[in-house]
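Tokens for chain A. Residues wanted.
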């Protein structure tokens, strides 16, 4: 998707160089989502100095992916380009760092934020991969039905 070198912490960069992840930004996230079938996970790592848990997530993410592959739920993986990650996260309604954002067939599913104990993390990721798609929690005005009795 993105052909230029991205300046990132080596643990984040290795997700691309060794584990087949792709960098995405505002212009490439939609094509990435459209070309992938099935489950997709987008890592919003943020600045590892401000959010050191991001490096922990980068280390365990390949292991989580292997567990999911073994369970028959493989997922495509991408990382938000650090320079535009905040803007991209806002687009999908995410405000926590680090965050794994789950999609299925290009449609938003859910997020798992922060770092967790291994067994909890495996359970959270498996639950996310089984959850239905839904509307991303972006900023907007909630729709109220005409039958509402709001005063």
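Reply:
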């Amino acid at each position: 998707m993105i052909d230029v070198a991205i300046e990132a912490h080596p643990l984040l960069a290795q997700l691309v160089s060794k584990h087949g992840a792709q960098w995405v930004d505002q212009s490439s996230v939609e094509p990435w989502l459209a070309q992938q079938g099935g489950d997709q996970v987008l890592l919003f790592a943020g600045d590892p100095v401000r959010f050191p848990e991001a490096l922990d997530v980068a280390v365990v993410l390949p292991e989580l992916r292997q567990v999911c592959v073994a369970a028959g739920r493989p997922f495509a993986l991408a990382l938000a380009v650090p320079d535009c990650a905040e803007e991209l996260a806002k687009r999908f309604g995410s405000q926590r760092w680090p965050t794994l954002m789950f999609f299925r067939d290009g449609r938003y599913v859910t997020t798992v934020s922060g770092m967790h104990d291994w067994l909890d993390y495996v359970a959270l990721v498996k639950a996310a991969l089984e959850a239905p798609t839904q509307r991303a929690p972006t900023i907007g005005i909630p729709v109220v039905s005409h039958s509402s009795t709001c005063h």
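The mean pLDDT is 89. The beta strands are 22-24, 39-44, 75-80, 99-104, 107-113.
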